[in-house]
């Protein structure tokens, strides 16, 4: 497999060099979260060996910062990670350019519903290559449950009063309530229903968590029976920290998110950038990354299929096929975001009384 | 003659240079305050009247809606009252615990012991506030240090359930701000002449009367200064409530922090901050007669 990928990359480089007439090495600049796949040293070394291109990184700490960097530094970055909830906004502002999946040989393995996910499209054109995805749901402490629950209503089960961990995040809280009441998670219509569901959590919540590290500490010290969580983090908590937990995919569905890789409008090295994006969706890279470091689910079905049997993401993707709905976090207006914060703060005030 | 001359001449020479030396000595401090406090505060005050953060690519206009939001939503007022109550309670506990301590330091203990005890009051100040709060989480949490100790002393003591409660927030804040009360009370207590106390005792006043009629009134400036120093930061605190309060740790300070960090709504955050500031000023105005008499 390794040799095959290598030869294919060589062939790709050769084809590109004849096409452009020069085979020069470029340094491409990638804009991403720190430690999120693109900056694994072993992979970059292999990439340089295969293509001659080197990769430099710049990091952002929030989606807003990423957009600001694209706006204020045109012509600087070659590859940027854009969460699909922001792809349309970036495309509308002219920050990223349309793409053709034919330029990415490994895109043949991408799950169709992810590759042409409506959140990645703007004016009928594709603006991001689906790379990674995952779901937000909840995880249980296996010691506190006899059988694995399969409904989101378990969060409201009085049997777990005072044993629930909840992330102190307005959007996520409202989305959980929207999912439980069968509403659109990106634009709920009935906020009274959402408020009612969130108020009903009052006896349930032990405390709020804000980071993966906090979550691990609370779970390890036995504060939680169950807690909302992200699939990628659950894999790490279980495999790297050895916590006795199980990630639950409720039959009602889970909140899904999708990250895509995009090319900024004035990317100085577009060809090398496309090579790098293709490198990122290559199963070979993903299998090594997920096995040695831990990763979310690849959008490339072939990549997930190559994971060893019993791997967290391989099991998860099978479970996700059984759920009723899998709504993706999509673009959200400022008004919706502010409304959600208001509902959440009002709810937190109610928790005090 | 010669004596009075030497006394007068420096005063005459000092007169013209007085203004210059005042400017020279206070100028840097005030310049620093203007640049680092007043200008950013003025910018925040301006932000609080905008509909969005004034960045390129964003639409914004001047509006009063951020201030209106406070009066339209009941929960902001609930949180305001809760924050004020927290401020009062923490200041009260600091007084109840700190005043006796300051009294003993100022009146009973002398010499090297006093220095050693002072050091113990001040040492917590040398460590980072965040570290102190996280230490409290280890003490207060279920099966933590406090519960283990109590269980060892009284077998079968059970659980206190202190972590993630309002009480935990008060405990953490009292610990953080206690030194302010001890230091301000110590300063005003040490200026009370011991002869006054002896005189009162010799004229038959009980210890309680001495405390009520002499010590408390004379040390009032220190108590008030300490209470103000504690009250103002506590009502805006967000770090201690977030870490120790858990589900019960929502105050106006945490809501303001959310506006800045999680939704990027600086204008609303700024407006809430200035409403909090206005509340503090109103409270001080109401208590002005008492404060003035005290100091």
Automatic annotation (TrEMBL), chain A:
Cytoplasm listed as a keyword: no
Where is this chain primarily localised? periplasm
Where located? Periplasm
| Endpoints of the signal sequence | 1-25
For this UniProt record, give its keywords in alphabetical order, as a comma-separated list. Answer: Periplasm, Signal, Transport
* InterPro entries, per the entry: SBP, Sperm_putr-bd
State the Pfam families in the record: SBP_bac_8 (PF13416)
According to UniProt, the name of this protein is Extracellular solute-binding protein
UniProtKB/TrEMBL annotation, chain B:
Protein known as: ABC transporter permease
* Family per record: Belongs to the binding-protein-dependent transport system permease family. CysTW subfamily.
Ranges where the ABC transmembrane type-1 domain occurs? 80-287
| Cell location | Cell membrane
Q: Give the taxonomic lineage as stored in the record.
A: Bacteria, Pseudomonadati, Pseudomonadota, Gammaproteobacteria, Oceanospirillales
Pfam families (UniProt xref): BPD_transp_1
Annotated transmembrane regions: 21-47, 86-105, 117-139, 168-189, 210-235, 266-287
Q: What is its main location?
A: membrane
Q: Which UniProt keywords apply?
A: Cell membrane, Membrane, Transmembrane, Transmembrane helix, Transport
């Amino acid at each position: 497999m390794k040799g095959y990928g290598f030869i294919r990359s060589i062939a790709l480089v050769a084809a590109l060099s004849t096409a452009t007439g020069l085979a020069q090495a470029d340094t491409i600049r990638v804009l991403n979260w720190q430690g999120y796949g693109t900056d694994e040293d072993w992979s970059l070394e292999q990439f340089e060996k295969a293509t001659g291109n080197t990769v430099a990184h710049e990091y952002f700490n929030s989606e807003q910062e990423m957009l600001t960097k694209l706006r204020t530094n045109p012509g600087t970055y070659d590859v940027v990670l854009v969460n699909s909830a922001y792809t349309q906004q970036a495309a509308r502002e002219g920050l990223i350019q349309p793409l053709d999946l034919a330029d990415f040989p490994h895109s043949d393995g991408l799950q169709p519903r992810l590759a042409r996910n409506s959140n990645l499209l703007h004016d009928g054109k594709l603006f991001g290559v689906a790379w990674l995805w995952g779901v937000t749901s909840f995880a249980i402490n296996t010691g506190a449950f006899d059988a694995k629950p399969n409904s989101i209503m378990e969060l409201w089960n009085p049997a777990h009063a005072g044993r629930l961990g909840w992330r102190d995040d307005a959007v996520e809280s409202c989305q959980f309530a929207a999912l439980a009441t069968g509403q659109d998670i990106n634009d709920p219509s009935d906020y009274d229903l959402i408020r009612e569901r969130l108020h009903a959590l009052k006896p349930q919540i032990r405390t709020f968590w804000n980071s993966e590290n906090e979550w691990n500490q609370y779970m390890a010290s036995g504060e939680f029976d169950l807690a909302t969580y992200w699939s990628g983090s659950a894999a790490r908590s279980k495999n790297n920290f050895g916590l006795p937990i199980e990630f639950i995919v409720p039959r009602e569905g889970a909140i899904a998110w999708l990250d895509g890789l995009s090319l900024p409008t004035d990317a100085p090295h577009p060809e090398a950038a496309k090579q790098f994006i293709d490198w990122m969706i290559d199963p070979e890279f993903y299998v090594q990354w997920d096995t040695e470091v831990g990763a979310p689910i690849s959008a490339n079905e072939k990549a997930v299929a190559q994971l060893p049997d019993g791997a967290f993401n391989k099991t998860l993707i099978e479970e996700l096929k059984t759920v009723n709905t899998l709504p993706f976090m999509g673009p959200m207006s400022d008004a919706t975001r502010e409304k959600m914060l208001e509902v959440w703060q009002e709810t937190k005030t109610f928790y005090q009384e | 003659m010669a004596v009075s001359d030497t006394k007068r001449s420096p005063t005459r020479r000092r007169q013209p240079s007085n203004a210059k030396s005042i400017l020279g000595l206070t100028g840097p401090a005030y310049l620093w305050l203007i640049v680092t406090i007043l200008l950013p505060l003025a910018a925040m005050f301006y932000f609080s009247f905008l509909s969005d953060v004034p960045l390129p690519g964003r639409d914004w206009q001047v509006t009063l809606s951020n201030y209106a939001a406070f009066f339209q939503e009941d929960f902001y007022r609930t949180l305001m009252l809760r924050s004020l109550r927290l401020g009062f309670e923490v200041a009260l506990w600091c007084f109840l615990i700190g005043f006796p301590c300051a009294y003993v330091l100022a009146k009973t203990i002398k010499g090297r012991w006093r220095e050693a005890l002072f050091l113990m009051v001040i040492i917590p100040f040398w460590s980072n506030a965040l570290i102190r709060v996280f230490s409290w989480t280890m003490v207060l949490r279920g099966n933590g240090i406090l519960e283990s100790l109590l269980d060892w002393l009284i077998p079968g003591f059970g659980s206190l359930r202190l972590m993630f409660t309002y009480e935990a927030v008060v405990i953490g804040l009292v610990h953080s701000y206690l030194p302010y009360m001890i230091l301000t009370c110590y300063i005003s207590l040490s200026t009370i002449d011991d002869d006054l106390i002896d005189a009162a005792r010799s004229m038959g006043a009980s210890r309680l009367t001495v405390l009520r009629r002499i010590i408390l009134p004379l040390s009032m400036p220190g108590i008030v200064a300490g209470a103000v120093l504690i009250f103002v930061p506590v009502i805006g605190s967000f770090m201690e409530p977030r870490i120790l309060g858990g589900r019960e740790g929502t105050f106006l300070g945490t809501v303001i922090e959310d506006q800045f960090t999680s939704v990027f709504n600086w204008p609303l955050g700024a407006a809430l901050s200035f409403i909090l500031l206005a509340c503090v000023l109103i409270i001080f105005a109401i208590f002005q007669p008492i404060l003035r008499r005290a100091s």
